[in-house]
UniProtKB/TrEMBL annotation:
Listed transmembrane segments: 20-41
Compositional bias of kind Basic and acidic residues: 217-227
Entry annotated with the keyword Transmembrane: yes
Region Disordered, residue ranges: 174-227
The entry's keywords: Membrane, Transmembrane, Transmembrane helix
Name of this chain's protein: Uncharacterized protein
Superkingdom in the source lineage: Bacteria
Length: 227
């Protein structure tokens, strides 16, 4: 215990107080600077994450709005264009659902329902769906600006659509969609190649008959002179 008594005596001595005070100030300064640096780094990282989330959300919303424009003329697109559009919509739907926002899945469900309705109506109304596309664009932009408030509106719409769903009507709509898809596929299917008989080459003979050649030789034969 002698070493402990010596340490306490050294710690409480008057000549060591400036050294202890300096060490305490240095320790507190290092601690405060470390905490401040960690707070600044955390704020910067969170700012970068929020900026990246905003960019992803804007890109996903832009893709969905573009998909709504294509869905309004869905029946006039080729099958290849429809495949590319569906792929882009699927990627945008996944991006929206993975966003760290409350109600992102609700917004994705609402957008999927609206896109499906636009595709179905394109077979009947065609280019008359511009107001519906404009409404879809405004609702998605409103969700981008005010996610919490728009989430309630989306949820109310989904609940209303669920209550209005009728099984016989849904079956009839599914059959109609199947028929429209078959008609669309048949319209863009490549017709079989048919050989045209008129395009086949016709062989013409350039040989003259033997009788005509013999007559020509007789005419060219010299006539003998009389004495």
């Amino acid at each position: 215990m002698q070493w402990w008594n010596d340490f306490v005596a050294w710690l409480l001595s008057d000549e060591n107080r400036p050294v202890l005070f300096t060490a305490g100030v240095v320790f507190v300064s290092v601690l405060v600077s470390g905490v401040l640096s960690a707070w600044i780094a955390r704020s910067a990282v969170r700012g970068l994450i929020r900026q990246r989330d905003r960019e992803l959300r804007r890109a996903a919303i832009a893709t969905l709005i573009d998909a709504a424009t294509e869905a309004s003329v869905w029946n006039s697109l080729t099958p290849q264009e429809q495949v590319l559009a569906d792929r882009a919509v699927g990627q945008a739907d996944i991006q929206v659902r993975l966003l760290p926002l409350r109600g992102a899945d609700v917004a994705a469900d609402w957008a999927a329902h609206q896109l499906h309705e636009l595709k179905r109506a394109s077979a009947t109304f065609g280019y008359q769906l511009d107001p519906a596309v404009a409404e879809f664009r405004e609702r998605m932009l409103e969700w981008q600006r005010h996610p919490s408030r728009t989430r309630r509106d989306f949820r109310n719409d989904l609940e209303r659509w669920r209550l209005q769903r009728d099984e016989p009507v849904q079956e009839l709509a599914a059959e109609q969609d199947t028929w429209v898809a078959e008609q669309h596929h048949e319209r863009y299917a490549q017709p079989p190649l048919v050989e045209d008989a008129a395009t086949q080459p016709v062989t013409t003979s350039t040989e003259e008959p033997a009788d005509e050649v013999a007559d020509a030789d007789t005419d060219r034969r010299a006539v003998p002179q009389r004495d």
